[in-house]
């Protein structure tokens, strides 16, 4: 096996890599202090905490005028390219991913907001699905030539969804603002590598992400929009499989609190399986709430359980009105 | 009061199931930012 001499040197002397990382850290500090960057990063803190974009002037300029976004990325290359030229094996301090045609670099994150750079290699893409998530997205095209479409999802009076399409050309200087709960951008053709700067902020209490069939707008799947909610759901399942009956009253309380209906329903199911009294008391309380989205399902489950176990009627009689 | 033990498997799910965060099929790279958010979350949590 051939080992490049530069790699071999790193293996022999670990201080080389440590020095490279120290230099990279200094470069990152200088980049963050650069006048083209510092105010934008400060604004991301405010935006990520919930401030409107109009209250974050440096960040807003990136996604509205034609000069601020190129300045921001020019500062990135001005600081990091010479550094990487000197230190080939230094790791840039940005989380990054590469998935086929798409590369992503996370420049900054604060609270609910992320600022990323996306590069899409030339190619063509066709889609059967369209996805939506509860977030606001601003996009600035930095380089490349591509075509895409904005797909807008509207709810018809009968509850079904309609998808309307608008073709868009993507070229340097292009700016987009999308409410991702009802609007999404699909790139269909990239003739020249498309590079965009993207600002995304998740909703404070995000609704589920959805996937619709492009053909007729049918809702095919949905997934929790909140990573925290999914984490709690996994914790519930784990406590249930561990037969931790002492957790049942907490689960029963969760089922009755305000929050993600899917999470609350799983809390109810697990509490019923762990502790019949605690779970059934919560079930009855939910079934009696006319304005709760879980009331109908809770009423049906209550009836099912009472039919299978008539002795539960005695417990129901003791439940608070 | 003697109460029955209820088996989890007889308790129905909601009509519209909601998957875990990030569990939607990725129809194309860059379909949404779930993967970036998950990577950041895991990095912070571990």
Structural account:
Chain A has 321 residues and is of the alpha+beta class. In chain A, 43% of the residues lie in helices and 29% in strands. Chain A contains 11 helices and 11 strands. In chain A, the strands form 2 sheets. In chain A, strands 1, 2, 3, 4, 6, 7, 8 and 9 form an 8-stranded antiparallel β-sheet that branches. Chain A has a 3-stranded antiparallel β-sheet with strand order 5-10-11, with no helix packed on it. In chain A, helix 1 packs across helix 2, helix 6 packs parallel to helix 8 and helix 7 (248-256) runs antiparallel to helix 8. Chain B is mainly α and 46 residues long. Chain B has one helix spanning 34-45. The chains are: A alpha+beta (321), B mainly alpha (46). At the A-B interface, strand 2, strand 3, strand 9, strand 11 and helix 6 of A face helix 1 of B.
Task: Describe the protein's topology.
The complex is a heterodimer of chains A (321) and B (46).
Chain A: H1 5-12, H2 14-33, H3 35-48, H4 57-62, H5 68-86, E1 96-99, E2 102-110, E3 113-120, E4 123-124, E5 129-132, E6 135-155, E7 161-170, E8 175-179, E9 183-202, E10 209-213, E11 219-223, H6 227-241, H7 248-256, H8 261-274, H9 276-287, H10 295-308, H11 312-318
Antiparallel strand pairs in A: 1-2, 2-3, 3-9, 4-9, 5-10, 6-7, 6-8, 6-9, 10-11
Helix pairs in contact in A: 1-2, 2-5, 6-8, 7-8, 7-9, 8-9, 9-10
Chain B: H1 34-45
């Amino acid at each position: 096996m051939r080992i490049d001499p530069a790699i071999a040197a790193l293996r022999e002397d670990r201080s080389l890599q440590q020095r490279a990382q120290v230099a990279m850290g200094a470069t990152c500090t200088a980049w963050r202090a650069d006048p083209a960057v510092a105010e934008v990063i400060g604004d991301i803190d405010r935006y990520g905490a919930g401030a409107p974009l109009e209250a974050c002037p440096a960040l807003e300029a990136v996604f509205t005028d034609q000069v601020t976004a190129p300045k921001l990325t020019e500062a990135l290359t001005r600081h990091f390219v010479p550094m990487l030229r000197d230190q080939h094996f230094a790791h840039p301090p940005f989380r990054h991913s590469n998935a086929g045609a798409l590369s992503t670099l996370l420049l900054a994150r604060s609270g609910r907001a992320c600022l990323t750079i996306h590069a899409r290699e030339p190619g063509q893409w066709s889609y059967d699905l369209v996805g939506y998530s509860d977030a606001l997205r601003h996009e600035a095209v930095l380089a490349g030539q591509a075509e895409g479409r904005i797909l807008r999802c509207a709810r018809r009076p009968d509850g079904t969804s309609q998808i309307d399409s608008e073709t868009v050309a993507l070229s340097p200087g292009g700016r987009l603002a999308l409410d991702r709960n009802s609007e999404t951008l699909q790139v269909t053709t990239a003739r020249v590598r498309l590079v965009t700067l993207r600002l995304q902020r998740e909703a404070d209490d995000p609704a589920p992400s959805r996937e619709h069939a492009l053909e007729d707008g049918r809702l095919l799947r949905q997934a929790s929009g909140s990573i925290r909610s999914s984490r709690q759901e996994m914790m519930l399942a784990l406590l249930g499989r561990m037969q931790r009956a002492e957790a049942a009253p907490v689960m029963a309380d969760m089922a009755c609190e305000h929050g993600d209906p899917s999470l609350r329903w799983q809390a109810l199911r697990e509490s019923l399986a762990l502790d019949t009294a605690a779970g059934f008391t919560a079930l009855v309380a939910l079934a009696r709430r006319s304005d709760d989205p879980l009331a109908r399902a809770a009423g049906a489950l209550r009836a099912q359980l009472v039919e299978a176990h008539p002795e539960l009627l005695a417990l129901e009689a003791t439940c608070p009105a | 009061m003697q109460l029955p033990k209820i088996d989890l498997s007889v308790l129905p799910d909601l009509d519209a199931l909601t998957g875990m965060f990030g569990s939607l099929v990725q129809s194309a790279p860059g379909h949404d930012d779930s993967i970036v958010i998950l990577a950041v979350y895991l990095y912070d949590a571990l």
